Amino acid sequence: MSIGARIWRLTLGLVLAFCAACSGSGDTAGSSADAGKLYVIKFPHVTAPGTPKGQTAERFKRLAEERFPGRVRVEIYPSAQLMEDSEAIEALAFGEVQMIAPSLSLFDRLTPKFQVFDLPFLFKDLDAVERFQKSPAGRALLGTLEDHNMLGLQFWHNGMKQLGGPRPLVHPSDAAGLKFRVMESDLLQAEIEAIGGTPQKMAFGEVYQALQTGTVDAQENTWSNIYSSKFYEVQPYITESNHGYIGYFVAVNKPFWESLPADLRTGLEEILAEVTEWGNARAHEINIEDRQKIADSGRSKIITLTPEELAEWQTAMRPVWDKFRDSIGPDLVDAALASSRQAP
User: How confident is the model at residue 33 (pLDDT cuts 50, 70, 90)?
Assistant: First the structure.
């Protein structure tokens, strides 16, 4: 099903979801009937269990079930075992799953605001991203998709993106003619076009085989994803560009969440806040560890850019800002830029 068709179905489904929420509405503060009820939270995602998202999701499951025994069961489905991220977005809106954490890039058909996270070289590091996400402008983004039955609760980090390819990518001209896998994002497509590459939108679970068979030549990803998905085995060169950010929008099905007893909902939100702090710090550590593992493997050569070479990439990708700034919202871009420029 195409993205457009999925969005049409999402919009149509809001009426059904609203009716379901109304028919099930009542005293959300809890009742005697709620006392023995088990609430099941299905949480699919596409990354491996050892990735930042995989580890944080498992920590959420453990703490939720420890603190609310017999009342909550969290079912984690990693590595696209249940569905791909684009399918999970639709499933959440329809209440078929209760929690998701897809890449922010995948929401650009529902709102252009999240494209701020994809602007190349906007954030210099994860600290800059986190300052923005904790700012009033960043926190306001959590409520952006409530009209689509998605209630945002937290942002989770993965890391900064690097460029992998079949040849050394030292200058932007080195990317000319290469077929790059990108997520289903118009901004990321424009980014690759800006450096002369050919973008191919593709689900995460298909990337390894596509690189192995030559369906695509190159990709952009974090150290943790490159290592856990073994992209380094089929990518002889990785350029340490830190040109973009991969993060996740942790969202729940709004009618389901609002139907929870108040004490349970509050407790789960507190757990999510706790694991987010832990997980975002762990994401930085995992990416450092996985970069070293890739270097130690000898399977892929890591290229470090000089300041002058890095500036070439920044210049080549800067037109993407001009193309998307107005649709994202100039004030939002400026708020993100201000967060990035602040001293730690």
Answer: low
pLDDT digits (tens, 9 = 90+) for 210-269: 999 999 999 999 999 999 999 999 999 999 999 999 999 999 999 999 999 999 999 999
Here the tokens at position 117 are: 């996270």
State phi, psi for 2 to the nearest 5 degrees. Answer: -70, 160
Distance separating alpha carbons of residues 141 and 294, to the nearest angstrom: 35
pLDDT tens string 60-94: 999 999 999 999 999 999 999 999 999 999 999 99
User: Which two tokens mark 287?
Assistant: 């990416």
Burial (Cβ within 10 Å: 0-12, 13-18, ≥19) of residue 323? middle
**Which residues contact residue 151 at a Cβ distance below 8 angstroms, ignoring those fewer than 6 apart?**
142, 143, 145, 251, 252, 253, 254, 257, 258
Question: Can you list the alpha helix ranges (DSSP code H) found in 119-220?
Answer: 126-134, 136-140, 186-194, 207-213
Which of these, 8, 12, 43, lies nearest to 268 by C-alpha position? 43
Q: Mean pLDDT across the chain, nearest whole number? A: 91
φ, ψ of residue 253 in degrees (nearest 5): -70, 120
Tell me the percentage of the chain whose pLDDT exceeds 70.
89
Q: What are phi and psi of 232, to 5 degrees?
A: -65, -20
C-alpha to C-alpha distance for 223 and 51, rounded to whole angstroms: 10
Contact criterion met (CB below 8 Å) for 178 and 166: yes
Kindly tell me the burial class for residue 343, based on how many C-beta atoms sit within 10 Å of its own C-beta (0-12, 13-18, 19 or more): exposed
Q: Tell me the residue length of the chain.
A: 344
Instruction: List beta partners, residue 44.
Output: 77
| pTM of the predicted protein model | 0.88
Is the CB of residue 34 less than 8 Å from the CB of residue 260?
no
Structure tokens that stand for 133 in this block: 């996400």
Confidence of residue 344 (pLDDT cuts 50, 70, 90): low
Name residues whose C-beta falls within 8 Å of residue 230's C-beta, 6 or more positions apart in sequence: 208
Q: Is 184 helix (H, G, I), strand (E, B) or coil?
A: coil
Grouping H, G, I as helix, E, B as strand and the rest as coil, residue 152 is strand
